[in-house]
Recover the amino acids of this structure.
């Protein structure tokens, strides 16, 4: 008790003395000996750059950053919805809002989903664990949308629990057996992705042990190699031939292409049109990934809003917009951005990072503060056995339901009864760049 009284009596003088001494050193020491250099350096070299350069210095290897780029791109914030009130009346609150969409309307077996939101690709083994894949399948099935296998191995439990399964036809050697292709509700040929471009990668046996190796057909000691390109695609007709093969092998389900948004986007789209695809998935520059070199995340790929606007304009110019479904992804975290993308012409939006965080929800307490939450979900994560797939599936279901309900409220406020009725005329642009990119009139123009 006496010690506490003494502390209180001398607290202010002690703090004053320490602060005064520190301030004196700060004001008189030469810069090269002054701790203030940390402040000026941190402004010039932000903490992200500093930590990443330290990781490079430690290993001398390429570092791989999870979840995409922290860089700020032009986004959908420059658009605002125009509410219905008098000249256009709001929808009666009792009216039901239709959220169903169709992917590949010209396919023999079009893919019909209950909502315009899809789960982005997260591959088994190359990214996430078996438990995560099962949670993704169950959560999407509960709301009537699709999950995407990604570039990993084909997990039988994925097909068992998913209502709608999009099989990603990757550049690696696995998951291409005809018996696997027949189980898909749609097939997406992976050409590129927003956070990784079309770069190659490999996973060592140490980072890929267990069941995934067997499913992917890897020999003991063999790396899992994801090439930069499909070995069967060397000339223009090759893509068309591959599309025809997959369409026949899978029994007429929609066949699509996944692209990274390039400055040569229109040329890439023309190749897709020539190949007679049923849908095109475009990954904007804000897309996430399990881990990719920062240079690919920060300096490759058009921002999502640029890619979407250019794609819509080109497909309309070629008069195929109503025949080829357009899926867009990359940096979608809110219902409003998803609805804005649909208004600009996307047929559906796919997300991965936001749903992944939502499904872990309170489970992150199993990891933090001593481990990052990704250790719960990665195939090689230290805490993957602690991940509860049933709880995660429930959270994922709630996430999608909440998103769609909020979007339905907005559709009602626009005076519509279907999410497919929302279009660019329901938008106004708040700045000249957004208006120029999207062709949406400025808010101060009539």
């Amino acid at each position: 008790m006496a010690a506490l009284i003494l502390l209180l009596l001398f607290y202010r003088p002690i703090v004053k003395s320490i602060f005064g001494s520190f301030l004196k050193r700060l004001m008189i020491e030469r810069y090269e000996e002054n701790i203030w250099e940390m402040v000026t350096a941190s402004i010039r070299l932000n903490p992200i750059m500093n930590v990443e350069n330290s990781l490079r210095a430690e290993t001398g290897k390429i570092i791989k950053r999870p979840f995409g780029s922290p860089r700020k791109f032009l986004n959908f914030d420059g658009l605002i919805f125009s509410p219905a009130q008098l000249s256009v009346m709001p929808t009666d609150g009792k009216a039901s809002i239709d959220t169903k969409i169709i992917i590949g309307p010209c396919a023999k077996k079009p893919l019909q989903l209950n909502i315009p939101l899809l789960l982005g690709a997260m591959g088994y083994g190359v990214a996430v664990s078996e438990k995560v894949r099962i949670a993704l399948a169950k959560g999407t099935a509960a709301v009537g949308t699709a999950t995407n296998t990604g570039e990993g191995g084909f997990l039988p439990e994925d097909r068992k629990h998913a209502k709608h399964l999009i099989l990603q036809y990757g550049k690696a050697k696995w998951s291409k057996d005809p018996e696997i292709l027949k189980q898909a509700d749609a097939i997406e040929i992976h050409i590129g992705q927003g956070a990784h471009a079309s770069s190659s990668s490999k996973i060592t046996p140490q980072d890929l042990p267990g069941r995934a190796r067997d499913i992917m057909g890897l020999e003991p000691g063999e790396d899992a190699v994801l090439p930069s390109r499909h070995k069967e695609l060397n000339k223009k007709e090759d893509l068309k031939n591959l599309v025809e093969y997959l369409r026949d092998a899978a029994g007429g389900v929609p066949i699509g292409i996944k692209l990274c948004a390039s400055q040569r986007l229109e040329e890439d789209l023309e190749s897709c049109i020539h190949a007679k695809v049923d849908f095109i998935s475009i990954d904007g520059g804000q897309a996430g990934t399990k881990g990719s070199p920062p240079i690919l995340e920060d300096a490759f790929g058009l921002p999502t809003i640029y890619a979407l606007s250019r794609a819509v304009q080109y497909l309309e110019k070629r008069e195929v917009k109503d025949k080829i479904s357009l899926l867009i992804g990359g940096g979608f975290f809110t219902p409003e951005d998803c609805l804005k993308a649909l208004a600009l012409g996307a047929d559906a939006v796919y997300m991965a990072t936001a749903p992944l965080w939502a499904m872990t929800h309170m489970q992150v307490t199993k990891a933090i503060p001593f481990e990052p939450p990704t250790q719960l979900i990665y195939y090689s994560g230290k805490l993957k056995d602690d991940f509860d797939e049933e709880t995660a599936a429930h959270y994922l279901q709630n996430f999608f339901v909440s998103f769609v309900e909020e979007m339905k409220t907005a559709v009602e406020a626009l005076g519509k009864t279907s999410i497919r009725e929302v279009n660019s005329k329901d938008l106004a642009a708040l700045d000249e760049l957004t208006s120029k990119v999207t062709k949406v009139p400025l808010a101060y123009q009539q």
Q: What stands out?
A: The chain has two domains: 2-44, 76-438. The longest strand covers residues 164-169. The CA atoms of residues 232 and 434 lie 39 Å apart. Residues 76-438 form a domain with the TIM Barrel fold (CATH 3.20.20.70).
